[in-house]
Amino acid sequence: MTASLHQSAKTPKPDAGVPTTWLDGQWYERGQAMISVYDHGLLYGDGVFEGTRVYAGKTFRLAQHLDRLYDSAHAIWLDIPMPKGELAAITEEAVKRSGITEGYIRHLITRGVGDLGIDPRKSPKPSVIVIMDTIKLWPEEVYEAGLKVVTAATPISQRESLSPRVKSLNYLAHVMAKVEGIQAGADEVLMLDSAGSVAEASGQNVFIVKSGILRTPPPYAGILKGVTREVVFELARDAGYEVQETMLNRYDVYTADEAFLTGTASEIVAIRQLDGRVIGAGKAGPITRDLRARYQALVRS
Ligand code: PMP
User: Fold this and answer.
1) Is the dihedral of CA 258, 8, 102, 96 positive or negative?
2) Which of the residues 47, 248, 249, 282 could staple to 110 if both were Cys, CB 3.0 to 4.6 A apart?
3) What is the band of 1 on the pLDDT scale with cuts at 50, 70, 90?
4) Residues 271, 152 within the same domain
5) Domain containing 36: what range?
């Protein structure tokens, strides 16, 4: 999910003095924008967010990310206090002002300042934050070698309590899964739903390839409907690969010919092993590599 999980710096931090953050109508230098300790985004994780990439100075799929941001907000009864077009314009301005050409944008909408009670009606003014920053990526060789992944014991959050399709400020289940991966010495984790079906990684969607067919869990499996996942659908269609949205279990991943993760920050990255079982050839397979090459071409087109 987040850019900071990755390994090597690709672009330097913007110079001090460069406005990279927009908070409720004002521009701030990197790290200078502050919110109140009474903001319910902090107190209760009450808010939503997005992560969008900038390639060669241009936003990639900003409209889809803003659609998901506004849908996430709507689902938690949070009104973003400006139309989508205005937020898009602020975002484009953030990119321009920052001078960053290869970067990552974080949108945050918090419930805003209230009292210490949970009632959202006491927070009448949501805060809108746009952060333009650089991004750290996996080194290129990782895309070829693939990731070592383990299954997390922490399942994704129950669909019944909050749909995983809401990209909310409460990422604790995913953080706990990530911690398990770190402690196991893995690069990433596979999260299951409480019935044991494959859901997603700590910040990426999951695909497998079996006999030339791509398979990935459907949104109702309890996943974030990834923008990159949707781009992979388009690329696969163009390349003539069949894609099936279907429930998967770990057996399907262990016995796949190829497996990969998709996300805004990590793009398309192969899985070389899950829980000690080598997947396919134990490195990026031909379809994963083809899709990655197509993705690279698209983001720079
Ligand atoms: N699942 C989770 C939990 C995520 O945080 C992300 C990253 N936003 C994804 C999947 C991948 O979504 P996208 O392709 O839109 O980045």
Assistant:
1) positive
2) 47
3) very low
4) yes
5) 11-133
